[in-house]
Amino acid sequence: MKKSQIIFIVAGLVMVATLYSLPMIVVENEGENLSMEEDDLSSDFDSTGALHNAALSAEAQSVIEKLVGEMDVVDDKEKFVIFADSVASFYEEGGKLDSAAYFYGLAAEKYPDPNTWEKAGNAYYEAFGYSMDEQKTQALASKTRAYLNRVLEKNPERLDLKTKVAMTYVSSPNPMQGITMLRDILEEDPQNEAALFNMGILSMQSGQYKKAVERFELLVANNPGHIQGQFYLGVCYFESKQRNKARKQFEMLKNQTDDPQVLSGIENYLERL
Q1: What angle do helix axes 97-110 and 38-54 make, rounded to 10 degrees?
Q2: Domain over 1-22+175-273 is classified CATH 1.25.40.10
Q3: Which of 21-25, 28-32, 89-93, 213-217 has the highest average model confidence (pLDDT)?
Q4: C-alpha distances out from residue 38 to 52, 72, 101, 121, 136, Å
Q5: In Å, how far from its chain's centre is CA 249?
Q6: Looking at residues 228-248, what average pLDDT do you find?
Q7: Which terminus in the chain has less CB density within 10 A, N or C?
Q8: Can you give the residue ranges of every domain in the chain?
Q9: Selection from 143, 72, 91, 85 nearest residue 111 by Cα
Q10: Dist CA 116 CA 151 (whole Å)
């Protein structure tokens, strides 16, 4: 997974990265329309664009302004996409993921094909994962599904994208729609890492630690280098009262990572064993 993060709570409650914090959203209809009003897109960006630009360096703002100016006058679709992608990259580097997604979306609207749809969908998914505002989260999730579902229509074997779509549904008032999708993925590919990890996280969130253990054990058996999976397996051993296994797991993991967040979490649990 890209840009994965782990957040540890000293009190002993382990929460997943913001991407997996599952903010509540409203599920859109299955047949979501990819076409988006230009005015709507502009409004979304304008409401945050000034703040996002203010957080960037003066040099970055200047380059973005020039690129946007080029986008306004260029007729060639491929050049438009290059300019839009360049603007999006500046926002990505500045941590402004929703603004980056907006420009990747413009590129996908101007030059619609599976590659631009996927880039836009992935960008909206990244922004969705870090959104803390319910209304914005709804919009980001909807656009994620709109773009990635278009890719899936042409490439239904892309289980990685199907997993992302599922996660936008999991955080809705009807989470079973997403969970069912994740289960379908595991039926098709029992060793799918993204689905196993997400199902393990969801089991943790619902307090089903023994079920989570099954998911994470299978995950790390197939990929021992999956540090997040290894850590959460230790947490699940701890929470399911398998303390000897938890201690062994954490001690083993100490020798496999130098990530300060992971090491801090390990030490916190070892102190409690």
Answers
A1: 140
A2: yes
A3: 213-217
A4: 20, 13, 15, 17, 17
A5: 27
A6: 96
A7: C
A8: 1-22+175-273, 28-170
A9: 85
A10: 9
